[in-house]
Design a protein that fits this description.
The complex is a heterotrimer. Chain A is an alpha+beta fold. Chain A is built from 2 helices and 10 strands, in the order βββαββββαβββ. Chain B is α+β, with helices and mostly antiparallel strands. Chain B is built from 12 helices and 23 strands. In chain B, α1 packs parallel to α8, α2 crosses α8 (338-353) and α10 crosses α12. The N and C termini of chain B lie far apart (50 Å). Chain C is of the alpha/beta class. Chain C has 3 domains: 2-118 and 256-323, 3-Layer(bba) Sandwich (FAD/NAD(P)-binding domain), CATH 3.50.50; 121-253, FAD/NAD(P)-binding domain (3-Layer(bba) Sandwich); 332-412, Immunoglobulin-like (Sandwich). The chains are: A alpha+beta, B alpha+beta, C alpha/beta. Chains in contact: A-B, A-C, B-C. The interface between B and C is large, with 56 and 55 residues.
Chain lengths: 120, 478, 415
């Protein structure tokens, strides 16, 4: 299989062409450094992302509290976790880094608050 | 049964409603949009011309000078801005100078104050004017108003004096009945003895509902730029080129709020909904105003917009009572100088088409205007905040409008329910950020004051809700 | 009248950093004036991560970055007046402000302006068409979504590929909207590569380079938009429009420093940065300093933090009569330089950091410094982008050679 990726390790943004099969890279072109190859490997076989989002909050100065995953999650878990966040409503006060959902969908990742919010 | 139904809540309908509210009559105003002052009244040059321009013998020539002279007192009574800043009509060549002579003759005949100025004097007054200008005909009593505020103020005052206003009532059919007329809107029926058709760009459509095909309305589009207040150094006066057959040309107009308007173009379109700006139109404005003042800071543009003037197929105001349908009065084709003539149009309608009206003994003449907090001195500001801390909470950063001013504007006889209605009245969102910061706050204040869900707050027309759905709310549909 | 040693106008990331550093230097009598209901500024609504790699050596979300600064300011007992709007500043440094407790006049010995910026709106870009509802700046939609919890639409198009536009594309998709595309008038995106990949490519959102919105359609509500390609002069190529049925158009078309207070003082602004003209101490008038996005629009909040921290230090030196003074040398922008900060420096200046933007992407360049026409220094740099501020240390080896004005040029080296 063939894919074209933009490396995001540095501002240069190399466009990398890669041929690969199920679990390994066959050949790779366009990267200017070994970081590029590493990036491509991770993007092809186990892409992960940090997810930042919000949950509802009662009695805060805003209706929503900002949250994030405390570790990167597999890319395919983004939408299932977004769905989980809809089910939650917390109460102010909240302190930054408070755990909002523990081990969300058994990923081993917690959803944590990214700010404190006092009672309005 | 109403005595009078006025169709259309623009500035003409507003003046007529206001004038009629002096008398013992049951009056109703029907407006198709979600707010009054929502079509031509919202998008024009806002000038109270003195009346030198219309040709002799026209209704325009008769009503414009009278209207002009009535404004100062009306604006004072209603506590809305009126600024006599004066106008310059500029001449570049002999042809133009000949036109100025014609205007001068008309001014003399109509008792209009004017002055002839040459570069040594007008360049002192307006140093940014193109130095190629040879001569200026100055009209020092030409004034500017805020047509939206004036229209709203007239209607607010008329409501206090008994007027009923129904918004979102688009007239679909009119049927003569024994005592007068039956008006059908999309969802209601009204009965009335008199109808006054001031439906602006839709007025010929209304007239045709009773089979009157005697006039048509041409939709003449005008495109404008609005410049930031920082551009107010450009000119103190309204600057006109010499007039032509397509109107008064492309102007530079200071607004009562300190912005500068550039425009309008004059381009006839087929669609009464076509208030779109165009590349060509904006380019035309740019080219033409740069003839008047060479160095215009277009980078200070905060908005461009277009409006439609309702030009009649007959080259004058079209004001008459239908011969086959008594008490059906058309007030149509009110293009420039329509706003300037409006108070006189209202009086003309009453003098010509109504008999033996009984004045109200308890007519309330004055109305308290908006606070305009930012324009007050520090002492008064401090005092107002002491009386009501919400004056100390600035919502619109650009125009410096406080929460209390918005609350005051909401709780008035004609309740503004939309973001745009608030913006038209007291200007949050009219500044350089165009509502980027304040609109979310205005939504919250509107929702709280009207006790409705923020999701039901519209930008303008019904269904133009801003907040479409809660991102994580109970209303979420998968 | 109240008296304060230092007033900071604006309690966003810049204001908080300036206050923290001024306090640490030794200014005790500080007051921050903030118009919002909480300090932290725009970071509070930028819930995505990627902030703070330079300042805190870790990747934080916007609210978390702001929280650290708010917590530190609280710990240092720095007073912040919230919901307070500054209406006027005079040249003798009397600040008038209002809040729900009244109208206040405060005489300051020094003022730091960390006033931030606002988003360019539809009016400013003069797109042809009607003016219906459904058109918002990206930041406004971001506030509605991230703080108030509302989506402004379900079918979205985004004009402008700056980072806010890209970030909002992803946010809207994650919350259930469909983003039909992003148009960028330039032949390249001004957003970070990472955001192109993780915000657009991850969700198959097309990016139309060298395209702009050529028409807005809909009387009351937005019904559709058209985009058209543009030529080299950024003019729309006629008869090539592509229509998208959308209910929302988000604009990410630039930020403008908010400097009406300074303009009211009749102090001229830099035409390029739209901020005040500062010296190497970030001072634009005696005892008045500027930093953050009110001075010029920064790429990263880390740079705002650095600059504002420096402004706090400089204010301290000013109060102790310890700032460089004397004759000013101008810094003149020549080939390929968009703008440059500071715009001037004192003849007895200590070494300082000079920042500039290039006007176009350049893969390899010589950066040249001239004293009038004499080349005094040359530096080779790779991968220069307009979206990325370049910072150079102006050390004594340059300063000692300057007798006149300092000119800067970026010369492209062809590979």
């Amino acid at each position: 299989m063939h894919k074209q990726l933009i490396c995001i390790n540095c501002p240069k943004g190399c466009i990398i062409d890669v041929n690969y099969d199920n679990n390994k890279i066959i050949d790779i072109q366009g990267n200017s450094c070994p970081q590029g190859a590493k990036y491509v490997e991770s993007e092809l076989f186990h892409p992960t992302r940090m997810l930042t989002s919000t949950v509802r909050i009662n009695n805060g100065i805003h209706n929503m509290l900002s949250v994030q995953t405390d570790k990167p999650i597999p890319k395919e878990m983004i939408f299932p976790i977004m769905k989980e966040l809809k089910k939650v409503k917390v109460d102010a006060p909240i302190h930054i880094n408070d755990i909002i959902i523990e081990n969300v969908l058994n990923t081993g990742v917690n959803i944590i608050a990214t700010r404190s919010m006092e009672i309005k | 049964m109403n005595d009078v139904i006025i169709i259309g809540g623009g500035i003409i309908g507003a003046f007529i409603a206001h004038e009629l509210s002096h008398y013992k009559l049951k009056i109703t105003l029907l407006e198709k949009d979600n707010d009054v002052a929502n079509e031509t009244t919202m998008a024009n040059s806002a000038i109270i011309h003195t009346g030198y321009d219309p040709k002799d013998g026209t209704l325009k020539a008769k009503l414009n000078p009278i209207g002009h002279d009535l404004y100062k007192q009306i604006c004072k009574d209603l506590d809305v801005p009126y600024k006599e800043i004066g106008a310059y009509v500029v001449a570049f060549d002999d042809n133009d100078i000949k036109t100025l002579e014609e205007l001068k003759t008309r001014a003399i005949n109509r008792n209009i104050i004017y002055e002839e100025l040459y570069p040594d004097t007008f360049l002192k007054q307006e140093p940014n004017l193109n130095p190629e200008i040879k001569k200026v005909l100055s009209f020092p009593t030409t004034a500017i108003i805020d047509p939206m505020q004036t229209c709203v103020a007239l209607i607010e005052n008329a409501i206090v004096n008994g007027l009923k206003v129904f918004l979102n009532q688009e007239v679909k059919a009119i049927e003569p009945i024994q005592e007068g007329y039956k008006i059908k809107t999309q969802d209601k029926e009204y009965q009335t003895k008199y109808i006054i058709n001031c439906a602006g760009i839709n007025s010929s459509k209304i007239a045709k509902m009773i089979g009157d095909n005697s006039f048509d309305i041409i939709f003449r589009k005008g495109e404008y730029y609005v410049l930031d207040k920082k551009a107010s150094y450009l000119t103190k006066h309204i600057i006109y080129p010499c007039p032509s057959t397509m109107g008064k040309g492309v102007l530079i107009v200071p607004t009562v709020h300190g912005n500068t308007l550039l425009g309008p173009t004059a381009f006839d379109v087929d669609d009464s909904l076509d208030t779109s700006t165009t590349l060509n139109g904006l380019e035309e404005v740019k080219t033409k105003v740069q003839k008047l003042i060479k160095d215009i800071p277009f980078n200070l543009t905060i908005r461009t917009f277009a409006g439609l003037r309702a030009k009649g197929s007959i080259d004058d105001f079209i004001i008459y009572e239908n011969e086959n349908h008594p008490h059906f009065i058309n007030v149509a084709g009110i293009d420039s100088p329509g706003i300037a003539s409006a108070p006189a149009i209202a009086k003309y309608v009453i003098d010509n088409f109504f008999n033996e009206l009984q004045p109200k003994e308890n007519f309330i003449k004055t109305r308290k205007g908006y606070y305009n907090f930012d324009s007050l001195d520090d002492e008064t500001k401090a005092q107002l905040i002491k009386e009501n801390p919400k004056f100390g909470h600035i919502i619109c950063r650009c125009e410096k409008i406080s929460e209390q001013e918005i609350i005051d504007c909401i709780h008035r006889p004609l309740v503004p329910k939309t973001i745009k209605a608030i913006k038209k009245r007291i200007r949050p969102g009219m500044g350089r950020c165009q509502g980027g910061f304040c609109a979310p706050l205005v939504i919250k204040i509107l929702a709280r004051e009207l006790s409705i869900n923020p999701k039901d707050i519209c930008y303008d027309s019904i269904n133009s809700n801003i907040l479409k759905q809660e991102s994580k709310g109970d209303d979420h549909v998968e | 009248m109240l008296n304060k040693d230092l007033i900071i106008i604006g309690g966003g990331s810049g204001g908080l950093c300036a206050a923290i550093s001024a306090k640490k230097q030794g200014i005790n009598d500080i007051l921050i004036l903030e118009q919002d209901q909480e300090a932290g500024g725009i970071l509070n609504q930028c819930i995505h991560n990627g902030f703070g790699l330079h300042t805190f050596k870790e990747e934080l979300t916007g609210p978390a970055f702001a929280q650290r600064l708010k917590d530190e300011a609280k710990q240092l007992n720095i007073p912040i007046w919230l919901n307070t709007n500054v209406t006027k500043v005079t040249k003798d440094k009397i600040v008038t402000c209002i809040n729900d407790n009244g109208l206040w006049q405060i005489k300051a010995k020094a003022i730091i302006f960390t006033v931030g910026c606002y988003e360019r709106s539809l009016g400013a870009i003069m797109t042809p068409g009607t003016r219906p509802s459904g058109i918002y700046t990206a930041g406004q939609a971001q506030k509605y979504l991230n703080q108030d919890g509302y989506l402004v639409g379900k079918d979205i198009f985004i004009l402008g590929s700056g980072d806010i536009g890209l970030i909002m594309a992803r946010r809207m998709v994650l919350e259930g909207a469909k983003v039909h595309g992003v148009a960028e008038i330039m032949p390249y995106s001004n957003g970070l590569k990472r955001n192109i990949v993780q915000c657009l490519n991850d969700y198959d959102i097309p990016l139309y380079l060298s395209h702009t919105v050529s028409k807005i359609i809909g009387k009351d509500k937005l019904e559709a938009i058209e985009i058209s390609p543009v030529d080299k002069n950024l003019k729309i190529i006629p008869n090539s429009a592509k229509r998208f049925k959308v209910d929302t158009l988000l604009l990410s078309v630039g930020l403008i420093p908010e400097n009406s207070l300074i303009q009211d003082l009749n102090i001229p602004l830099d035409k390029k940065t739209k901020g005040p003209i500062v010296d190497e101490n970030l001072q634009f008038y005696d005892g008045m300093f500027a930093a953050g996005n009110g001075l010029h629009v920064h790429d990263l909040v880390d740079y705002v933090a650095n600059e504002a921290t420096q402004a706090g230090i400089n204010a301290y030196h000013y109060l102790n009569n310890n700032l460089s003074k004397g004759k000013l040398h101008k810094i003149i922008n020549k080939d390929n330089i968009g703008y440059c900060l500071p715009q001037q420096f004192h003849e007895d200046a200590k070494p300082f950091k000079l920042s500039f933007r290039v006007t176009k992407p350049i893969s390899k360049a010589k950066i040249q410094f001239y004293d009038n026409d004499n080349l005094i220094k040359e530096i080779i740099k790779l991968n220069l982008f307009p979206a990325e501020m370049i910072t150079i240390n102006i050390n004594d080896d340059i300063l000692n050679k300057i007798n006149n004005d300092l000119s800067i040029k970026v010369v492209e080296i062809n590979a």
